[in-house]
């Protein structure tokens, strides 16, 4: 709320100044308010950040196109392009702090440094496409400029309000409808005033892209009648369709029309009723009778985004598996758990031959449902990949989070996406908790081609149940859910959850605590620096302002928390 009030206060001030001097051009660009050193520093900071965040030849095209477009957006001369391209290719990284200081000394940014975040957001959305890599970059640059990520959320929500059509549900009372319209009108006004200070055209109403949807009543009073006349509602609808998918229905609009391979059930359930420019999809790993009999139950407190979904998949098989796991633990296994640990996990020798005979007698009870769900989770993950690749969610960044077999769904989703063209810029962050998948780094390398932000592997060293049920799935018991993944990449973040998770079933029961541990915002607790689209949770960052002193991609690579 503090960020929203700060933004509204600044926007109100800008509007008063605009009304006081009507003879002036209503749209003063950020590029024209910053001095040339400031514009150069802004572009250079983005170039250096791009090189650190997205190194490698496969990201070269994105880095080059982004920096070229941003140089033009800032109204910088073409003569600076070679230098900016060099920054984006990894040269000059030692200038990160210098460029940051130059930028922060600009008079307009001393009053409101959030303008840089706003300008980057406006640039990134100008074509109705919000690339996950662009959002990760915005988060990184904002952090360098000491701008809270909460402020980016406020900007995104305000922009979203400006894009929404003013339609009210028929069931609403006149008073509720009136208040909602007033609120939307205010938010649109604030956003329009802010946008009047940024951008890359002489009048934002004439630049297309973002300007197209800004057809709200009152636009003429801010950008002038000529600018308002240039805003096309048809173009605005097109941008909305691009960002939010067909009919703006998001993922709830997707229904599996016919059986796909072995998959019998695949549906997205809404966890929240809001809309947002970035979305979160949660994937449950099993079901069981009682409190955790629904897919949504474990995620009731999660508030990573205003628009969150839960994937409902193969409930019949997941219920059978969950009840079997629960019975296994609540029955005789409780009496022998310590014995199993003594002879297996704690000794470091985890093979089928070392498990106690009494525990192995239960194998026939668990092996069949577990094996069935292992296979189906892989198929569901591949299907999810093609749903995301087809942009059913619209042109927006997606964060995936799942536990147990839900994490396995995510793993196979990313593996499938990595084999397809145009798979970059869709996935922002992924969180895999207690994942029953291969733990060797070579199997995870492909994920870095798809994920723009963080790849979080949450594991528990003492999860003997996962070790037991996975024993027949692989000759090598190198399981990601039991140990860190030693991948040398800045995206990889390993988090030891052994102090939170005592056993595999705790991933569902302790989800609220786990979410906070990995930096995901919840309804009860909102971390100061959440992991929303960011590499910069307290655990994942050390000294990224000095990242330029290291080779791109080396800092935090494969870091274990």
UniProtKB/TrEMBL annotation:
UniProt-annotated stretches for the region Disordered: 524-561
- From the record, what ranges are coiled-coil? 149-184
| Composition-biased stretches (Polar residues) | 534-547
Question: Where found, per UniProt?
Answer: Membrane
Q: Which GO terms describe its cellular component?
A: membrane
What keywords would UniProt list here? Coiled coil, Membrane, Transmembrane, Transmembrane helix
The record ties this protein, via InterPro entries, to: AB_hydrolase_fold (IPR029058), DUF726 (IPR007941)
Membrane topology is: Multi-pass membrane protein
The UniProt family comment states: Belongs to the TMCO4 family.
Recorded protein name is: TMCO4 protein
């Amino acid at each position: 709320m503090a960020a929203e009030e700060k933004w509204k206060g600044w926007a109100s001030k800008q509007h008063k100044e605009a009304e006081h001097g009507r003879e002036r051009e209503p749209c003063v660009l950020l590029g024209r308010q910053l001095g040339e050193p400031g514009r150069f520093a802004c572009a250079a900071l983005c170039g250096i950040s791009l090189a650190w965040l997205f190194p490698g030849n496969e990201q070269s095209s994105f880095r080059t196109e982004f920096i070229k477009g941003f140089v033009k957006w800032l109204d910088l001369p073409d003569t600076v392009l070679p230098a900016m391209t060099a920054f984006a290719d990894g040269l000059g990284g030692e200038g990160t702090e210098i460029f940051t200081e130059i930028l922060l000394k600009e008079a307009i940014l001393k009053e409101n440094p959030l303008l840089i975040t706003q300008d980057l957001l406006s640039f990134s959305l100008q074509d109705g496409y919000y690339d996950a890599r662009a959002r990760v970059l915005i988060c990184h640059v904002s952090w360098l400029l000491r701008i809270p990520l909460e402020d980016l959320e406020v900007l995104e929500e305000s922009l979203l309000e400006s894009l929404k059509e003013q339609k009210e549900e028929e069931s609403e009372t006149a008073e509720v409808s009136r208040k909602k319209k007033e609120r939307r009108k205010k938010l649109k006004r604030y956003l329009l005033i802010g946008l009047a200070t940024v951008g890359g055209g002489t009048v934002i109403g004439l630049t297309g892209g973002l300007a197209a949807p800004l057809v709200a009543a009152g636009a003429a009073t801010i950008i002038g009648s000529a600018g308002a006349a240039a805003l096309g509602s048809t173009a605005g609808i097109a941008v909305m369709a691009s960002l939010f998918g067909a009919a703006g229905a998001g993922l709830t609009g997707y229904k599996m029309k016919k059986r796909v391979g072995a998959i019998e059930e695949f549906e997205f359930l809404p966890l929240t009723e809001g809309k947002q420019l970035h979305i979160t999809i949660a994937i449950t790993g099993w079901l069981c009778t009682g409190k955790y009999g629904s897919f949504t139950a474990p995620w009731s407190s999660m508030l990573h985004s205003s628009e969150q979904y839960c994937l409902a998949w193969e409930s019949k098989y997941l219920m059978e598996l969950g009840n079997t796991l629960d019975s296994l633990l609540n029955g005789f296994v409780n009496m022998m758990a310590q014995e199993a640990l003594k002879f297996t996990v704690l000794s470091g020798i985890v093979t089928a031959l070392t498990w106690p005979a009494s525990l192995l007698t239960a194998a026939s009870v668990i092996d069949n449902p577990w094996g069935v769900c292992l296979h189906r989770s892989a198929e569901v993950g591949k299907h999810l990949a093609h749903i995301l690749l087809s942009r059913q969610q619209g042109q927006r960044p997606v964060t995936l989070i799942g536990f147990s077999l839900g994490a396995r769904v995510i793993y196979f989703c990313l593996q499938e996406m990595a084999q397809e063209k145009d798979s970059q810029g869709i996935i922002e962050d992924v969180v895999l908790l207690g994942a029953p998948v291969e733990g060797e780094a070579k199997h995870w390398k492909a994920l870095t081609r798809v994920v723009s932000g963080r790849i979080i592997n949450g594991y528990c060293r003492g999860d003997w149940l996962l070790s037991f049920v996975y024993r027949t799935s692989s000759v090598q018991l190198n399981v990601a859910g039991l140990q860190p993944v030693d991948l040398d990449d800045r995206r990889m973040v390993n988090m030891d959850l052994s102090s939170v998770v005592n056993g595999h079933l705790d991933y569902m029961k302790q989800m609220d605590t786990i979410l906070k541990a990995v930096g995901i915002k919840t309804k009860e607790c909102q971390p100061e620096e959440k992991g929303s689209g960011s590499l910069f949770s307290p655990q994942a960052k050390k000294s990224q302002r000095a990242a330029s002193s290291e080779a791109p991609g080396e800092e935090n690579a494969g870091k274990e928390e």
